[in-house]
Amino acid sequence: xxxxxxxxxxxxxxxxxxxxxxxxxxxxxxxxxxxxxxxxxxxxxxxxxxxxxxxxxxxxxxxxxxxxxxxxxxxxxxxxxxxxxxxxxxxxxxxxxxxxxxxxxxxxxxxxxxxxxxxxxxxxxxxxxxxxxxxxxxxxxxxxxxxxxxxxxxxxxxxxxxxxxxxxxxxxxxxxxxxxxxxxxxxxxxxxxxxxxxxxxxxxxxxxxxxxxxxxxxxxxxxxxxxxxxxxxxxxxxxxxxxxxxxxxxxxxxxxxxxxxxxxxxxxxxxxxxxxxxxxxxxxxxxxxxxxxxxxxxxxxxxxxxxxxxxxxxxxxxxxxxxxxxxxxxxxxxxxxxxxxxxxxxxxxxxxxxxxxxxx
Length: 360
Ligand code: MRU
Description:
Layout: E1 2-3, E2 6-7, E3 11-14, E4 18-22, E5 33-36, H1 39-47, H2 54-71, H3 75-86, H4 93-106, H5 111-151, E6 155-159, H6 175-183, E7 188-193, H7 200-212, E8 216-219, H8 224-229, E9 235-238, E10 242-244, E11 249-252, H9 255-265, E12 269-272, E13 278-279, H10 285-288, H11 297-300, E14 301-305, E15 311-315, E16 328-331, E17 338-341, E18 344-346, H12 350-357
Parallel strand pairs: 6-7, 6-9, 7-8, 9-12, 10-13, 12-17
Antiparallel strand pairs: 1-2, 3-4, 4-5, 10-11, 11-16, 14-15, 17-18
């Protein structure tokens, strides 16, 4: 996608055997790129959310292994790097999927061949991500086209968090259909949940929709239900960090409440799910998916651009207040209208999901 007219991916290889990323902690007020020189840099970027979004942290993990292999390619180094990277964030299964794919490929190879193979594989995972998302965009486009044909006027979508191109290598998952529909000339508008506590909606989704010229409106997290009651939402579309074999969807905290409101108001609730986000080893998402618990500061403080042009952080809860910060929740399959995958739209049903995505 383009930033001020220049095409970018969120992660790319750069001179001197390094990787460059867009530092997402600086958006939307500053556009800054950051060079990752070694595996520790990659691990820190994932943990510190300079890169975030399930597909992108997977790709960064893969590049982290490649960065490690170019410095030390022993069995011990491979094991230590993979073990560390996989733990950088616990919920999005894409990270584990990508790192384990690297480990499986590299383990049997002689040390001297590992670095070259690792770079090639990380590049392949990044390119595959772009292909997958483009395909999700095409399948999701059909859903939006149908809605538009039926309604005959502006299609109002609602999305939570950021599952746009910033969360992937390019295109995004939930926003890929939005971009495809907008580029096809469909009259649409996106309600953007601000997505407390880190505000990925207000900061990142609004920024990238604005870069592409897609009409959108930022709303507070609690506004969605009200808008649905008044017929102002035609479709909810969100991303996922992990989807279980039976179709339970783990995504950014607050997604479940949107699914409940959508269900109560007869609004279709779609989840964009690339193949690597499926965790076929898990079934009951509420019991089994590890939910990342993040620090209290994200809840007690907010930061942003002040009227004097300075970016500052300020406390919004009383000093000494305790805060809890579960970063994700699980939407049970029964609340999901469909999973938009790279192979088409599938019902959140174990048999259908396995048939469509397993053995890919
Ligand atoms: O904590 P984040 O910003 O990594 O959470 C991101 C989300 O919850 C996204 O919706 C999800 O990863 C899907 S991204 C295509």
